[in-house]
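Q: Got a minute? One more chain.
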Amino acid sequence: PKVIWYEPEEKWVMALYLDGSDFALFESRNLKTWRRLCDVSVPGTSECPEFFEIPLDGNPENTRWVFYGGNGNYLIGRFDGHTFVPESGPHRFSWGNCFYASQTFNHIPPEDGRRIQIAWGTVENPDAQYNQQMLFPVELTLRTTQDGPRLFAWPVREIERIHGQHWRWENLTIGEGETNLAGVEAELLDISVEFENRTAEEFGLIVRGTRVAYNAAQQELSCGGCTAPLRPVDGRVRLRLLVDRTTVEIFANGGAVYMPVASIAPPDDRFVELFARGGETCVASLGVWEVKSVWNR
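A: Always. Here it is, folded:
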């Protein structure tokens, strides 16, 4: 269950998983006695509910409520303290293969105001003395798109505190084949790249052996067997990659597509390449940061 404080009526509200794709909302004044408010069905998901209010396009006077289950599939709607009325959905949140049971932080100070989510990364690491991981915390925003309101995900800004060495390029022409980024050799990376395609049928990056590709004709992003629809914005495809020891988390076009992918890199491959197939592409801008450990040693 997920329990939140509903300030307008000074009561607790609980989202509870029932069975199949069925959930329900309950209310309580004392956290002991609960009354059922309404049922919520989220096709295509189960378990681990989350329920929160979020501004649309950053406007605190125009909010919606989001209800999602374990795999992140979500509904967008309105909640009057008694009934949740979906307006759209279910929509897919994660396009990857290692996202589950995420939760968001409540009561972040108003002067901050972010909705921050952290998820379970279901990645097995046979060489470690532990199993699986938490994915990188992301800020959630609800934005108007041509398809209607949708959740966007973006790494929290605090990652800048662990940025290390930085490399930058602009206006690179990438011809047929692979182009190694000279001088870049690191284990953990934060990469931002903006492609303006010319004639390539497919283009992208190979990061520590993991291939992140964009199919221009199909307007499709792929990595590690996962695919997601992705339309260019103003003729450009923008990608951000967080490369960890067992995952590559991809944020496309400002977080419109979120694709966390399980990927255990070969220890001796610490390189980054750009590639094009069937023509050439242009890298309008590319920034690569080495990411340091959060632990002081």
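A: DSSP finds no helices and 25 strands in the chain.
Q: Perfect, thanks.
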